[in-house]
Every structure is written in structure tokens, then in C-alpha cells.
Design goal:
By secondary structure, this protein is mainly beta. The protein has strands at about 1-5, 10, 15-25, 30-40, 45-50, 55-60, 65-70, 75-80, 90-100, 110-115, 115-120.
Length: about 120
């Protein structure tokens, strides 16, 4: 499975961005797609996850109520809608795919990773 993340950019605090993760190759309904982020000087952290079927979602407390993860079935894509962005959301965002199991908050549980897309939120 190959993943490609896109949609990052520069946005003012309070604004919105929509990230996309396109999946190519052999996917399975048992897959989980996760979003992680890594800020400069910090460890990679879990942001959100969704089952490939789209029926189950999971969010980090820091983004709950502001971010929404969803599956775009027609495009084999998972989106991360980010609203009410804060400077502390600034990071490189990665999407990842993991086989089986729920929930998946640990990056070690994911088997495939995209290249990352940079999000910068300025105040």
C-alpha cells in the first residue's frame, strides 16, 4: 500500500485546512488509516484514526471537536478536516495504514506511511 498525504500549508490561527491521504495498491476493509503529526523537536504523536470501512473514528483529546477524519470512498482517500487551528497544531502531518486491530494510537502499530505534509499555523 502506498500513501500520499497532501493539503498542508500556511494558515492563520482560527482558520481551516483539509488534508488528504490517497491510498494506492491493495487495501483491505480491515485496514485502519491514522493521522500523526510531528512538531519540530517533539516526538510524533497520534492525531486521529478511521477504520477503512469508515464506520469508526478516534481522536486525540487535543484535536477532538476541531478535527474530523472521514473516508472519501470514490477517491480511495481519507481526509482530515482541521478547523479552529491553533499555533500548537503546527507540525508535519503524516498518514499511515495499519492492518487489523482497533484502536490504533501507537505509531508502531502502523505498517505503511506517507511522506508527510507540512502545516504551519501563525497567530
Amino acid at each position: 500500500v502506498q500513501l500520499q498525504a497532501s493539503g498542508g500549508g500556511l494558515v492563520q490561527a482560527g482558520g481551516s485546512l483539509r488534508l488528504s491521504c490517497a491510498a494506492c495498491g491493495r487495501t483491505s476493509s480491515s485496514y485502519v488509516i491514522g493521522w500523526f503529526r510531528q512538531a519540530p523537536g517533539k516526538e510524533r504523536e497520534f492525531v486521529a484514526a478511521i477504520s477503512w470501512s469508515g464506520g469508526i473514528t478516534l481522536y486525540a483529546d487535543s484535536v477532538k471537536g476541531r478535527f474530523t477524519v472521514s473516508r472519501v470512498y470514490a477517491k480511495n482517500t481519507v481526509s482530515l478536516q482541521m478547523n479552529s487551528l491553533k499555533p500548537e497544531d503546527t507540525a508535519v502531518y503524516y498518514c499511515a495504514a495499519g492492518r487489523g486491530g482497533w484502536p490504533k494510537r501507537d505509531s508502531a502499530e502502523y505498517d505503511y506511511w506517507g511522506q508527510g505534509t507540512e502545516v504551519t499555523v501563525f497567530s
